[in-house]
Amino acid sequence: MTQIPIIDIAALQSADPTRRAAVAGAIGAACRDTGFFAITGHGVAGERIADTFAAAAQFFAQPLEAKQRLAIGTHGHNRGYVALATESLDEKAQPDLKEAFNVIWTDEATRPPNVWPALPGWRERVQAYFDAVHAVGRRLHAAFALDLRLPEDFFADKIDRPQATLRLLHYPAAFASDAPAGQAGAGTHTDYGNVTLLATDGVAGLQVRRRDGGWIDVPPLPGAFVCNIGDCLMRWSNDVYVSTPHRVLPPRQERYSIAFFLDPNPDALVSALPGCVPPGEAPKSPPVTAADYLQQRFTETYKHLSGKRAGA
């Protein structure tokens, strides 16, 4: 495989079940192969995407002192600012050469509210993008259910209070020419949850690992979202779907991306799905709540948050 498939998902909103099933089949094939695919026809306006990139640039252009007041190490719960060289997505490598800002799903009654920069209108712009891409992620879950021969709404009550995170990401170009050996924009890793929807700014850097160990360069795909299966959905599908390692190389020029991680409700039980376990075989992994599983994964990445619930 030399490239990821591009799938038009507009028909997922069709009243015709045959059309919905056809799109679900295409998505399912990609999920079984490399676990990566790109989607068009998602319904998120190009102007909305462009405005969110502008909001990201505005935030990261602030002085470090202003960003650090919102640091995730201070506020916890996986929300706020992540400084350069703070994370190590590849635990065996040097810290990643990126900075980030996290916005979580919250009803502010059961989970702490987000923290926001003092930039007029910024919260509303970013929240609007969050809501728009969240809706796309819900449609993808309906497609997963169809492909796995489950009721189309199987996941609906398992992602209505999701541990979802929107990440604005910035890879400064200053590191492109002098990055230490073994250091990357984002180290080789798999994502933790169910599915990730990524918007990129057209600057190259994302690579996906093939089954033979080689790497696929993901090209610029204006207006599309690059999607990939995470470890939690792979576990839920009893490894029918594949969570594939990927990385971001130090960019040759400044790079921004926007990642939306749609992960299950905290109390969702991640247990091998009906039809995904061959007759006579045991599930490959025991049941676990999504909260416990994701907490373990976040703790590994955010070791400086010892004692705080990073993923809640």
Structure, explained:
With 312 residues, the chain is an alpha+beta fold. It has seven helices and 14 strands. The chain has a single domain (6-305), classed as Jelly Rolls. It has helices spanning 17-33, 46-60, 64-68, 72-75, 122-147, 231-236, 290-301; strands spanning 6-8, 36-40, 80-82, 99-104, 165-171, 186-189, 195-200, 206-209, 215-217, 225-229, 246-248, 255-262, 269-270, 288-289. The strands form three sheets. It has an eight-stranded mixed sheet. Helix 2 crosses helix 5. The chain is globular. The protein starts with 5 loop residues before the first strand and ends in an 11-residue tail after the last helix. The model is unreliable at 304-312 (pLDDT under 50).
Summarize the structure.
This protein is an alpha+beta fold and 312 residues long.
Structure keywords:
312 residues, Jelly Rolls, four-stranded antiparallel β-sheet, 27% helix, globular, oxidoreductase activity, alpha+beta, disordered C terminus, 20% strand, oxidoreductase, single chain, eight-stranded mixed β-sheet, 7 helices
SSE order and pairing:
Layout: E1 6-8, H1 17-33, E2 36-40, H2 46-60, H3 64-68, H4 72-75, E3 80-82, E4 99-104, H5 122-147, E5 165-171, E6 186-189, E7 195-200, E8 206-209, E9 215-217, E10 225-229, H6 231-236, E11 246-248, E12 255-262, E13 269-270, E14 288-289, H7 290-301
Parallel strand pairs: 1-2
Antiparallel strand pairs: 2-10, 3-4, 4-5, 5-12, 6-11, 7-10, 7-12, 8-9, 8-11, 13-14
Helix pairs in contact: 1-5, 2-5
GO molecular function: metal ion binding; oxidoreductase activity
Domain Fe2OG dioxygenase: 158-264
Organism: Ramlibacter tataouinensis
